[in-house]
Amino acid sequence: EAQVTQNPRYLITVTGKKLTVTCSQNMNHEYMSWYRQDPGLGLRQIYYSMNVEVTDKGDVPEGYKVSRKEKRNFPLILESPSPNQTSLYFCASSLLSSGGPSPGDEQFFGPGTRLTVL
Amino acid sequence: KNQVEQSPQSLIILEGKNCTLQCNYTVSPFSNLRWYKQDTGRGPVSLTIMTFSENTKSNGRYTATLDADTKQSSLHITASQLSDSASYICAPGGQGNLIFGKGTKLSVKP
């Protein structure tokens, strides 16, 4: 089954304790992205990647790191989490048509990771 | 500054009725606009994708329109069903960077 998986789904941690949220897709997608969603705000992009070893900042990259060593995986790293990073995180992936967006570029989202930083 | 405004913030309709959700945006670069449906606590699911040159796109009972000149889009839902209760999110942007609106929360009542 084509899907985007995230782990863990729920995480409670303390300020300063490094953590990694994994994201994996089995659709051979070039494009992967991380978002956070907070009450009253829209999804905000943290980082995105257009291919292996190619990453770029989104709108809210501060306090986060990513890596794209393999096409299928795109982990999100919080080196020193703080309470303001408490949020619902989504990973997403899609194809990346060279000529621009097409119906084949539908973005598939993972189930979400609910992170609480105390 | 990139901005996406959706209206109304919330909407309650009776099952079987139609409704239209609005999205106004100021986003650069702009090449495409997407509409998503998000059930509570779950990831968004794509409904339509339109490039800047397209005016309308349908997906079953969902029809999206786009006016790139006035920077407006709408999502029309026909013959609503209880399962349409969700948040609907507009996301304009370039190829790698989408800007998401806050969404319209739709409740369909029997």
Explain this structure to me?
The complex is a heterodimer of chains A (118) and B (110). Chain A is an all-beta fold and 118 residues long. Chain A is built from no helices and 11 strands. The radius of gyration of chain A is 14 Å and the shape is globular. Chain B is an all-beta fold and 110 residues long. Chain B has strands spanning 3-7, 10-14, 19-26, 32-38, 45-51, 56-59, 62-67, 72-77, 86-93, 104-109. Chain B has a 5-stranded antiparallel beta sheet with strand order 1-3-8-7-6, with no helix packed on it. A 5-stranded mixed beta sheet of chain B has the order 2-10-9-4-5, with no helix packed on it. Chains A and B meet through strand 5 and strand 10 of A and strand 5 of B.
Summarize the structure.
The complex is a heterodimer of chains A (118) and B (110). Chain A has no helices and 11 strands.
Strand content of chain B: over 45%
Termini separation of chain B comes to 41 Å
Low-confidence stretches of chain A: none
Strand content of chain A: over 45%
Major beta-sheet overview of chain B: 5 strands, antiparallel
Distance between the termini of chain A: 36 Å
**Residue-averaged pLDDT of chain A:** 91
Instruction: Give the SSE order of chain B as H and E letters.
Output: EEEEEEEEEE
Number of beta-strand segments of chain B: 10
